[in-house]
Structures are given as structure tokens and as C-alpha cells.
């Protein structure tokens, strides 16, 4: 066992160091790196990127320092060197914070032979070999390897090196149930069930296993964090997390163990939109508004199935990904696999993005993000499949997100489990892309929100339980609708007809009807609600001679209602977000934007950004000041990575509604530098922007007229 150094010998460090760790470099060593490591190159990268924090491979699967722990496999090229220690020392000389990375997901053959109890096992009880590397075996996160051995590794690192944290990657297991004898015995003792099998999805043990696994992993987080803090009180053990944050762990155990989050979404793949990194910042803030989050970005290309870790992503993609992330609050973190560089084209675009963050950070870190519109984050969790509980956004959410970005309506997120009247205090419109299973407390909060003058835009079955569950909490009364037919579909060739003129159905000049949905609800509207669109009765899509409308009941498709409190509600009785994301019909994007703008009230949005192109907008405000960040996402590859060029924005204007009775309004351009002309017209401050390459932040200040 490693004897920790006395705490008195450790330099004093601030327990809130993580709030100043705002630009991260991560270097993941490979086995042969100690022989070729160029320390000066990496220190220069840290200088060029203005990095103030470093995450560096230390141990676990492979040690990159002279460990004294048996079976802690040293790099074959380590010799008498200490690459981890050399870069820790160099980073500290640069005034940086340092986090040691450990990876406990596998062990080498000697450890496997000596400690078979550490290994994950298949349903027949056989150790599971690594899928990619021969002679290596997966570990079981419920075994003594994680509980005791990795704890000892963390203690050794924290005792011997001046680090601020330990970061665990791939710590949750191999992605399936481990049937190791010790795990099976513990599960039976704790739950009374035998471990479930994948070929029996209806096994009631699955529900027990999901909760048991969550608690075991949560207890690991606590154990590891306690261990390192006992040696150096300011040090934290922060295991890697994805979009679920702590949602799939036991919140009462781990919430205070995560002072900040590192979201491992390293780039775009498939048909992910250019605004994806910004959403990560918003989603994290929707659950933990006061905790920093860093977005881990790979310098290489990303793919769900292919891995090219020694290659480089397009520089335009890298810059855009990092910048959109930090504008929406996700701090920049780049990761490079292997210290030896076969292609250095990533360095300059990362440095440029980081330097933009450095320029904007004094303002962005001082002013909180604010928005009048909030999207309810209702991620699906599975009680029977813990590996599916990763918080992947739904297509309903994707469609609303895309429409709001296109409409340039600034918005935030509020997590469903964090929904309170206090969280909605500064929100004017709450958007529910699809919230099918609201609880009684959530329904009550939303009703109180509208009673206090707030507005709601709800799509599809949000807050409308099926007719077979009449006792479930419902928003039907608030929305001014009655559910008479449950979800029906998929429906082809569906249309919705414009009803009486209303702000929600404006902008469709020349059209009697627009495309409807594929999944429909049958609703009726109460007397004091306005029917804005009606469903055209279904008719065939083939043969072509039969494609014409027939008479029938024209049920409401979109219902708008004004409340005595001044609040407004809109209900859309079909899968609007999903169908917009799937088909990208501009009419659907307009419908979402119209609904939200009408819900904001006659005064409209407080902040408007006009001009051509696709931009992501973030607003931050304080007493006597407001900042509007405009990120240029205009690109032919905006809906599918990678971007290959940056196309400057032209003709942009920023308009901000000012508080009553203010004077001396000034405007500064944070990226371009210097003050700029501001025109005050009808209580709004208007700033015209020169062409924006990637980012501009307009910082407005004013004084009260009575000052």
C-alpha cells in the first residue's frame, strides 16, 4: 500500500480551483509515447491555446509514471522516465490546473491471472476478453478492482504529484451485465434477484438491476472522492459523464461530488446540427445552473462506428464546434490522442478558438445567461436498460431546437426534475416539444406559471395523458382542449387548414393548408380558445386519382388561448417537432416560431437579431448592461459535419428593448474591439454589425435616467 504524504507537505490549493479552469488541454498517452514525448511542443501548445488547465494520462490500464503498485502495468517504453510528472511540472510552471486521467476498464494478462475476481464475466461465467486488444480483459466495476485497487492508484497519484483532480474514463464497465461470481452474489444478497439476461427483456430483475447498478456506481464516486480528499482536501475525483450528468446515478449521493461536469461529446457525426455543442451547455445549465461544464472536443473526426484517432478534423469544424459551445456556456476542452503528432493542422484552429474564448471570457464569465424562452428538457430514462439511459435528445426536441435557432429566438433549458416556479421566475414562455409523462408537481408548477402571467407552447401529447389513464395529471384544462381520441398514426398525406386569421397562422399567404403531421391527437377546443388550424380529414395518397379531400370532421390541429393573467397557451395536436426535424418543411418552422412569438406577448422578444444566414444567439445580462453573442453557423454543412469553410455573415443587426428611463447607451464589440454606434429608436437600442466571420459579442451599457 502507498503511504500518502502528509497534508502539511502539500502546497495550499483553493477548493474552488475548478471555477478558474476554463480552457482545457487533454493529452491521452499511448504505450510508445514516453520514448518520443516532446515536452516543449506540448507546453508551447498550452501557451498558444491559452490553456489554464491540463488533463493528462496517469494510470489505470497503463501507468505513465513510475508506479510502485503491483500489477499497475507500466508503459513498455517508460524506462526511468516520468512523462506524466514532466508535463505536470511544466503545466504548473505555466500556472495551470492539472487533472490526472485514469482508465480502469481493462487489465493486462498478468493482473487477470493473479486476480480473476477483478474481471467481467459473460453469462456462462467466463472472463470477457477485450474486443479490440488481444491479451487484455475487461474489468467489472462492481469488483474489488474498482472499489479498492483503483482507489489505491488514485491515492498514489495524488500523494506523489501536485494535481487538483483525478478524472476517470470508461469507469462504468464494458456496456453489459457482468455475471462474475462476486457481482452475482452481491446482487442476489441486495435485491433477492438473480442477474437478468439479455434474452429475457421482461425479467423483473432488470428494474432491480438498473437501480442496483446506479447505486453501486454512485458509491464508487463517493469512495474515490473521499479517498483523494483525505490526502489533499482541495483535490476532487470526477469520473467522466455524458449528457445524462448525474441523472442515471443516485442524485442524493453524488450531486455534491460533481463540482463541475465534463461532457464527453467529442464532435459531430451523422446528421447532427452545428448547434449541437451549444445545446450541451444549455442542457447542463438546465439541471445545474451554477456549475461549470466543459465540452470535450476531439481534434480528430468523429464517427459512431469508425475511429481515426491519429487524423485531424477540418479546422473550420473545430473552430465552430468550440465557439458555439463556449458561447452557450460549455467551456472549451480539446483532447488529443497520442503525444506524437503525425498531423499538426489542428493546432492553429484550436488556438484561434481558445483565443476567442480568452477575449470574451471576462464578460461571459461575469454575466449570467438569460432568456425569456425555456425549453423543458424531458429526457427519456429506461428502468430496464441502464445502457439506454444516456439522454439522447428526441426528434421532437431536435425539431423545436432547429426552429428556434432559425428564428433567432434566444432560449434556455429547464430540466423536468428541476422545474419549479423559482426556476421559471424570469421566463416568459415555456416550450414543451414533447412531455408525455408529466407528474402532478410539474403540472402544478406549469399551472402556477400561467396563472402568474407566463405562457406555454405545448406540442403533441405534452401534458395530455391517454384517455385510458384518466387519473393522470393533465394540462388539458390549461391548454383549453379536451382529448377525445388517443394518438393515431403513422398517417400519410395529412394536412392542416388555416382557420380564422390569427398571429399564429400568419405568413402563409397564398396557402389554404399546409403539411400536417404523422402522429395525430383527436382534440376539441373549449369555448374561449381560438382554433388556429384544423385537420383536413384523411384521404389516400395513392392511387393518384384518389388523392383529393373528402368531407368529414375537421378537428382542431392548433389551439391558442389567452388567459386572464395575461399568459397565453398554444397546443399543437400533432408531432410538430419530429416532423420538422424529419422533413424540414419551412412551414413547420414558421409555425413553431409564430407560436413562441405570439406567446411572448404583444411586446415581442426583448432581443432580436436580424439579417440573413443561420446564427446561434446567446444573451447575458446584468444590472445596467446586456451582452448579445452572435455565432455564425451559416454553412452548407450546418446540418451534417464536417464544415469545410467559414462563410462570413453580412447585414446583421442587433436590437435590444431597453428598460424604461435610461440614458447614455453605449455599445462595444468584444471580438472586433472598440465601441460602435448605437441608435436608440422607440425604446430599443439598435447596433449594426460589420461582416461577422465566426463570432461577435455586442456589449450594451446604460445608466438610469435618475442616476
What is the total tally of β strands? 30
Reading off the top of the CATH hierarchy, the class of the largest domain is best stated as Alpha Beta
CATH superfamily of the largest domain, called what? Glycosidases
As for the number of domains, it is: 3
What percentage of residues falls in helices of 4 or more residues? 25-40%
**End-to-end C-alpha gap:** 66 Å
Largest sheet: 9 strands, mixed
Number of H/I helices:
16
Under the CATH scheme, which architecture of the largest domain would be assigned?
Alpha-Beta Barrel
Low-confidence stretches: 1-11
CATH topology of the largest domain: TIM Barrel
Helix/strand class = alpha/beta
Rg result: 27 Å
Organism: Desertihabitans brevis
Protein name: Beta-galactosidase trimerisation domain-containing protein
Pfam family, one: GHL6
InterPro entries: Class_I_gatase-like, Divisome_Glycosyl_Hydrolase, GH, GHL6
Structure description:
Pfam families: GHL6. This is Beta-galactosidase trimerisation domain-containing protein. InterPro entries: Class_I_gatase-like (IPR029062), Divisome_Glycosyl_Hydrolase (IPR052177), GH (IPR017853), GHL6 (IPR028212). It comes from Desertihabitans brevis. With 707 residues, the chain is an alpha/beta fold. It has three domains: 19-259, Glycosidases (TIM Barrel), CATH 3.20.20; 373-599, Class I glutamine amidotransferase (GATase) domain (Rossmann fold, 3-Layer(aba) Sandwich), CATH 3.40.50.880; 607-704, Immunoglobulin-like. The protein contains 16 helices and 30 strands. Strand 20 (556-562) and strand 21 form a beta hairpin. The chain is globular. The protein starts with 23 loop residues before the first strand and ends with a strand.
